[in-house]
Backbone:
């Protein structure tokens, strides 16, 4: 498959941006600059990147508690994201939401979610709107292996299937739901097998290979846009950090983490890019510096932003 | 006497009850080697094994629902819902199944189960990980609602809850887990439906729940320096509610402030205030005051969250309004 150079560049830039953003957030969290529950996406960058490379601005996503990578990939503004993590008035949610609730409805980002499995039905709803209004918009619904055990997963897939809604269910199988391994939480090796119950395609891809994700989702998006209904795409990947910042990760081995780091999506893609002659070492380095400056600007923006004033607690409850 | 944190006191109650009664088991998300999201079940799996300390998938409906079925057929499950906010996922199993089975079946079923869950704001966990929803459960006939504020009460109330033949919602405020208090090593019970006077006083009664008991005690201490004597009453269980202890206190002080972290509108205090209006109107010298969270979801930013959570100052102001 020939992917345009511009798209390949975007994918690389996007993965680097996520990695850099997340690693910076880990430091800032440790330094007490951002608060609450922060679930980082380090290691899983290829999934959101490969998925969103297929989406247009008008398309929708529903995200999860581990949402920063999804938001960045759908065009989320780094300054507004960082300011939200800092609890400032200038943040995406005016300091009301934090990491687990960042949303940008204008960009089709229907919100990160603090409830595991909370996003499935809303994804179906957004797909329903597309069909009802006769647009060709699609919805990418991100969710974890653990989330696929919630009732809402099964209810939503069934509904999307019978109504042939334009939803791509993107499973990020990182093999754990907090401490519970996938092996212990379900009796099947592939979440994608669950698609069979709803008579929709279920596809398994290497979630650390951005091009593999891109291609699988391209098919699914084509199917969705042409009115043929939903697809379940399972991306096998791994999170490097704890479940949340502060998790002692007693439930997995160092060795397992080391093995997965060998399959890191970013160096893998760098090798591909230089093999394909898309980018030189120097260009990559330049890009890395550029992104790191951009993240520092976001940190500066957040840090210099005002706090909300206490009375604002009462705003935005009702329309 | 030996001191334990509330977390350790709850852990000890679980351990001792599991030892005493082989029908008691624990289930929930990450309750095994992880020891629970707040460390409350730490070590139980080593002692009782994975057959009795069960890590479930993320599936709150089936966690609670399977516990209902197991309880109806002879076991005594203690289910953990990691955050009280997640009760939303499993409400049918609580409201329509657990709570009503006995009544619907003409008294022929018993559902001896406990749902332990962590409530409360204070760590910027935002709107879906911070709520205090105990009033929802007070409203449903068939459920009991327990809300401890100290280590001693937590252990004794949990033992009573496990032994009770009804479904009990056992609410743990996550920001007092680390508070220490004296706890006997032996098994003991604190009866459900019995309030406790946490501090005696004569000018104003402050009725407070969970974390707010401690804010109320701080307020009482400060007010005592200004010559105002505050009595702090902790209902400990919200359903059944101990009307008698509350009314006895009001007979003495004639003034009352109710404090909780749940939102004020239709919060637990609304029922307590209405009960006081019904049964103790003649003893009151002033309107019943309530100090509670505003009618908003729990905000994320520490600045907003601080404004949201009722604190010592707001309690002091409310007491002063009554004594001015
Ligand atoms: C309804 C609900 N139950 C439990 C939780 C606590 N929780 C947050 S993330 C998580 C694990 C999710 O696992 P998975 O879906 O695999 O996503 P991952 O964290 O691995 O990305 C759990 C149990 C929650 N937030 N919401
Ligand atoms: Mg997972």
Residues:
């Amino acid at each position: 498959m020939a992917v345009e150079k511009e798209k390949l560049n975007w994918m690389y830039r996007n993965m680097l941006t996520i990695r850099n953003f997340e690693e910076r957030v880990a430091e800032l969290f440790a330094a007490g600059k951002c608060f609450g529950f922060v679930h980082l996406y380090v290691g899983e960058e290829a999934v959101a990147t490969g998925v969103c490379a297929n989406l247009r601005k008008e398309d929708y996503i529903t995200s999860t508690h581990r949402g920063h990578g999804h938001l960045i990939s759908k065009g989320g503004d780094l300054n507004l994201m960082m300011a939200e993590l800092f609890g400032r008035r200038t943040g995406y949610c005016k300091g009301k939401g934090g990491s687990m609730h960042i949303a940008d409805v204008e960009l089709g980002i229907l919100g990160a979610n603090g409830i595991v499995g909370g996003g499935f039905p809303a994804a179906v709803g957004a797909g329903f709107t597309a069909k009802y209004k006769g647009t060709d918009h699609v919805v990418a619904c991100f969710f974890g292996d653990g989330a696929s055990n919630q009732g809402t997963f099964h209810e939503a897939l069934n509904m999307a299937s019978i109504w042939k809604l334009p939803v791509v269910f993107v499973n990020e199988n990182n093999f754990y739901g907090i401490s519970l391994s996938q092996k212990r939480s379900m009796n099947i090796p592939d979440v994608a097998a669950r698609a069979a119950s709803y008579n929709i395609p279920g596809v398994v891809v290497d979630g650390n290979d951005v091009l593999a994700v891109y291609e699988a989702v391209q098919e699914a998006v084509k199917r969705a846009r042409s009115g043929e209904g939903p697809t379940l795409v399972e991306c096998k990947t791994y999170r490097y950090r704890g479940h949340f910042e502060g998790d002692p990760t007693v439930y997995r081995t160092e060795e397992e983490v080391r093995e997965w780091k060998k399959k890191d999506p970013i160096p893998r893609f760098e090798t591909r890019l230089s093999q394909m002659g898309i980018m030189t070492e120097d260009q990559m380095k330049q890009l890395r510096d550029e992104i790191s400056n951009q993240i520092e600007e976001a940190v500066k923006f957040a840090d210099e932003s005002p706090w909300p004033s206490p009375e604002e607690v009462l705003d935005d409850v009702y329309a | 006497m030996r001191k334990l944190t509330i977390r350790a006191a709850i852990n000890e109650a679980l351990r001792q009850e599991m030892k005493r009664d082989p029908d008691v088991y624990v289930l929930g998300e990450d309750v095994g080697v992880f020891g629970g999201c707040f460390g409350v079940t730490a070590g139980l799996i080593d002692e009782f094994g994975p057959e009795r300390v069960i890590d479930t998938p993320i599936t709150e409906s089936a966690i609670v629902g399977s516990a209902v079925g197991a309880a109806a057929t002879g076991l005594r499950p203690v289910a953990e819902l990691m955050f009280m906010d997640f009760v939303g996922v499993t409400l049918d199993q609580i409201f329509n199944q657990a709570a009503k089975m006995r009544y619907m079946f003409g008294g022929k079923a018993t559902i001896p189960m406990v749902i332990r869950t962590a409530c409360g704001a204070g760590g910027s966990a935002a709107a879906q990980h911070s709520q205090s929803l105990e009033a929802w459960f007070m409203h449903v006939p068939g459920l009991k609602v327990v809300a401890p504020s100290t280590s001693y009460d937590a252990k004794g109330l949990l033992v009573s809850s496990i032994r009770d033949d009804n479904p009990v919602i056992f609410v743990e405020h996550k920001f007092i887990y680390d508070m220490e208090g004296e706890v006997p090593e032996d098994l003991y019970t604190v009866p459900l439906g019995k309030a406790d006077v946490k501090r005696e006083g004569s000018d104003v009664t402050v009725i407070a729940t969970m974390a707010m008991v401690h804010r109320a005690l701080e307020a009482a201490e400060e007010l005592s320096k200004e010559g105002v004597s505050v009595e702090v009453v902790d209902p400990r269980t919200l359903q059944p509610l101990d009307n008698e202890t509350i009314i006895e206190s009001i007979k003495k002080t004639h003034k009352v402030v109710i404090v909780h972290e749940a939102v004020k509108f239709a919060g637990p205090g609304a029922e307590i205030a209405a009960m006081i209006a019904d049964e103790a109107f003649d003893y009151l010298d002033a309107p019943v005051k309530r100090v509670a969270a505003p009618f908003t979801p729990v905000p994320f930013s520490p600045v907003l969250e601080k404004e949201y959570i009722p604190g010592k100052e707001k309690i002091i102001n409310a007491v002063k309004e009554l004594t001015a």
